[in-house]
């Protein structure tokens, strides 16, 4: 059950069905992302696809010798653009694939526009999501909430996107949702209704134990996206931002052009695949080993004296270049991460975050936060996240000083919009949305830290924070997840609410994090025979989560009379 494999299979089928010959691949903005995340351009070139074109930017001379594969979302805008293209076709043949279900009326409009009968195929291929990893998908939607409610267009996109995931994986699941969340309920019911409406598409063989779609609300765990991260993938996203498996380093001075835009894909990067879930200190040690391997291979290639030496060099050159590229990429990333950690006291910040999330001595933690907030080396966003965590933990603490901390942020020069995020975090995570109090002594898994010295000059703290989604899934896999807390949608329920589900798709409305992706990966490894996918409206770091908070709490700021400080 791999969403990457499912999307790749669709792309392979598109290219195969168009037959031999030179081809152009025409996409829209979203499907361009969907394709580029699972397929490198060099791979597609090997399949006789020589041109790539955006449908909204299409134009130019006719090239009738080319076949055109069209892969777009079935939106009104794309239908109009296709009509314009078909009325004056620039290519010899068109093979049209929609990434989701398309209205029959739209197909009729296309048929009427195809006067020259250049369309050879119109099909639905349900690759309507960004498959970031075999177990992780996203819709790249930020700001999907408006107050307590869904943004209407975001809800529609999410419903159709989840249904596309199910169809691509050939799953007709039971549907459960977080019972105390209206947001989760509306999404679950929307998916259920669309599955019922498209019941013919879901006519799959039914296994004895049905798959499960489990829908959660980001409000149930506001803490996880606020924390700094110390595993490789999550840390890169937190400090440098991973955008559809790419990292933009153009702001880093002194880099060559080929290192300013880095691709991080476990399919095409063996080092990344083996280290993406390792902690910062271990990465330092492993990069050292990678460099030593590269140096050995470089020495071997220094002596090319005979025909046999030349032959060996040519045979191993692609692998040599691949290792060279991996070394340059990961040394660059590690160097920038190390610089940020040292320059901005991130070890100290993260240590306080850990202790904030535990029930520690209030007076001591308050003193340490004040010290960090007044330290000019600490970044503004790290000061903000500390105060937000403090607000979530000590909002009602007798003798608390939230107002004093906010005033310190103000003195640092943080804008009113950023200061408002402190109260927004509390509003976002109202107590009723929490299956259990994240900060209670009974339910909190205490943080531990592990210091690893893997590379000289690199000392790394690995935080053992466990996201709520891990606890929920663990209860589910052990048959302990109560139906009163996570009810079924009546139209798509299971015969036995205590099934030990084997195929689970958990979706978090409001976005997921790479830390939660790691949790799902660990659960898959620890439970052979169980396959869990994680999806979200977006994959957040702290900065993008602030954008989510802004839209979700905008109406509170305008009408609420509540004062936290």
TrEMBL record:
One of its GO terms (biological process) is protein transport. It comes from Ixodes ricinus. It is found in: Endomembrane system. It is a peripheral membrane protein. Keywords: Membrane, Protein transport, Transport. It comes from the Eukaryota. The keyword Transport applies. Its main location: membrane. InterPro entries: Sec-1-like_dom1, Sec-1-like_dom3a, Sec1-like, Sec1-like_dom2, Sec1-like_sf. GO terms for cellular component: cytoplasmic vesicle; endomembrane system. This is Vacuolar protein sorting-associated protein 45. Belongs to the STXBP/unc-18/SEC1 family. PANTHER family: VESICLE PROTEIN SORTING-ASSOCIATED.
């Amino acid at each position: 059950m791999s969403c990457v494999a499912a999307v790749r299979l669709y792309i392979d089928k598109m290219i195969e069905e168009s037959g031999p010959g030179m081809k152009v691949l025409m996409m829209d903005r979203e499907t361009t992302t969907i394709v580029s995340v699972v397929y490198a351009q060099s791979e597609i070139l090997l399949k006789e696809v020589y041109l790539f074109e955006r449908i909204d930017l299409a134009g130019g001379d006719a090239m009738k010798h080319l076949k055109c594969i069209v892969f777009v979302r079935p939106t009104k805008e794309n239908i109009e653009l296709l009509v314009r293209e078909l009325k004056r076709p620039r290519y010899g043949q068109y093979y049209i694939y929609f990434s989701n279900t398309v209205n029959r009326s739209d197909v009729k409009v296309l048929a009427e526009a195809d006067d020259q009968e250049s369309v050879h195929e119109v099909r639905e291929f349900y690759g309507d999501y960004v498959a970031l990893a075999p177990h992780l998908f996203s819709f790249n939607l930020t700001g999907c909430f408006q107050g307590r409610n869904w943004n209407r267009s975001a809800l529609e996109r999410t419903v159709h996107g989840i249904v596309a995931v199910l169809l691509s994986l050939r799953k007709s699941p039971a549907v459960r949702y977080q019972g105390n969340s209206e947001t989760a309920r509306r999404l679950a019911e929307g998916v259920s209704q669309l599955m019922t409406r498209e019941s013919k598409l879901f006519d799959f063989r039914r296994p004895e134990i049905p798959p499960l779609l489990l829908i959660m609300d980001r409000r149930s765990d506001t803490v996880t996206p606020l924390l700094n991260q110390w595993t490789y993938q999550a840390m890169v996203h937190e400090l440098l931002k991973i955008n559809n498996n790419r990292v933009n380093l153009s702001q880093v001075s002194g880099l060559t052009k080929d290192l300013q835009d880095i691709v991080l894909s476990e399919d095409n990067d063996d080092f990344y695949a083996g280290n993406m879930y390792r902690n910062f200190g271990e990465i330092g040690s492993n990069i050292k080993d990678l460099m030593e391997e590269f140096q050995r291979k470089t020495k071997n290639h220094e002596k090319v004296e005979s025909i046999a030496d030349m032959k060996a060099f040519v045979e191993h050159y692609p692998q040599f270049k691949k290792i060279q590229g991996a070394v340059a990429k990961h040394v660059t990333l590690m160097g920038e991460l190390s610089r940020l950690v040292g320059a901005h006291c991130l070890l100290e910040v993260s240590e306080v975050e850990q202790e904030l999330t535990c029930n520690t001595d209030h007076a001591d933690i308050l003193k340490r936060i004040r010290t960090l907030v007044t330290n000019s080396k600490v970044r503004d966003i790290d000061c903000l996240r500390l105060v937000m965590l403090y607000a979530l933990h000590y909002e009602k603490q007798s003798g608390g000083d939230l107002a004093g901390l906010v005033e310190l942020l103000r003195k640092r020069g943080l804008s009113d919009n950023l200061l408002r995020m402190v109260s927004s975090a509390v509003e976002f995570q109202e107590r009723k949305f929490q299956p259990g109090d994240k900060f209670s002594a009974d339910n909190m898994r205490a943080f531990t830290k592990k210091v690893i010295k893997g590379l000289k000059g690199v000392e790394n703290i690995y935080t053992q924070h466990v996201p709520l989604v891990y606890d929920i899934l663990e209860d589910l896999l052990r048959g302990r997840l109560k139906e009163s807390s996570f009810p079924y949608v009546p139209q798509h329920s299971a015969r036995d609410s205590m099934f030990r589900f084997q195929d689970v798709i958990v979706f978090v409305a409001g976005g997921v994090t790479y830390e939660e992706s790691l949790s799902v990966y660990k659960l898959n490894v620890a439970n052979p025979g169980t396959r869990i996918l994680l999806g979200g409206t977006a994959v957040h770091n702290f900065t993008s989560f602030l954008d989510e908070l802004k839209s979700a709490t905008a109406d509170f700021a305008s009408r609420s009379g509540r004062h936290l400080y």
